[in-house]
Amino acid sequence: MEATKTQIQARLQKVREIGFRMDFELLNSIPDLDINKIRIQFGFQVEQSTEENIFILNVQVVYAYPINKDEKVLVDLKTTNHYEIQDLQSLVKYSKGEFQDITGLLPTLLGISIGTLRGILLVKTTGTILADFPLPVVNATDLCKSVTNGK
User: Fold this and answer.
1) Largest separation between any pair of C-alpha atoms in the chain
2) If we measure between CA atoms, which residue out of 95, 28, 87, 78 comes closest to residue 55?
3) Helices (H) and strands (E) in the chain, counts
4) Where do the H-state alpha helices sit in the chain?
5) For residues 17 and 66, what is the distance between their CA atoms, to the nearest angstrom?
6) CB-CB contact of 91 with 85 (8 Å)
7) Which stretches within 6-139 are classed as H helix?
8) Short-list 22, 59, 35, CA closest to 144
9) Are 105 and 91 in contact (CB under 8 A)?
10) Fewer CB within 10 Å: N-end or C-end of the chain?
11) Measured between alpha carbons, how far is 1 from 82 in angstroms, rounded to an integer?
12) Residue 19 CB partners (closer than 8 Å, separation 6+)
């Protein structure tokens, strides 16, 4: 049986920073910051929009660093990304507050959102040691599976 391909028409409508924190004091207090010890954590949340054909994806990245047996947050950035997607209701379902991606759309939008996050983070970290440590490329499909426990 041959898989059916769905053509999706979408555009990134809006990106907003909804939270940013960088601990400059902590960054400046680490004498020889080892970029290899930075732990990057991602998070995302699908938000149901009240507007028709609008898909909202909130993403977050946190850079944490080990200091004296604790992990301290160096950077925390959150954005909200609004996508206008033609015929959205046929591509995703919301049931009892739960989001269901019936066409595999989420990893593509998450990849775009993380790329946008990368650009914002690059601008925000200019002039710091983190400017030489851009957000790495991640596999959005694997990230979706890890967050949703493979569902």
Assistant:
1) 60
2) 87
3) 3, 6
4) 24-29, 106-124, 140-147
5) 26
6) yes
7) 24-29, 106-124
8) 59
9) yes
10) N
11) 35
12) 60, 76, 77, 78
Q: Are 128 and 122 in contact (CB under 8 A)?
A: no
Three-state SS at 25:
helix
Q: Are strands 70-85 and 92-95 parallel, antiparallel or unpaired?
A: unpaired
pTM: 0.86
Q: What is the pLDDT along the chain (151 residues), one digit of tens a residue?
A: 455 566 778 899 999 999 999 999 999 888 888 989 999 999 999 988 878 889 999 999 999 999 988 999 999 999 999 999 988 888 888 887 778 888 888 999 999 999 999 999 999 999 998 988 889 999 898 888 776 554 4
The answer to whether 92 and 112 have CB atoms below 8 angstroms apart is no
Sign for the CA dihedral angle at 121, 122, 126, 130 comes to: positive
Q: How many CB atoms lie within 10 A of CB 133?
A: 19
Which alpha helices (DSSP H) does 9-105 contain, by range? Answer: 24-29
| Site of tokens 């595999």 | 104
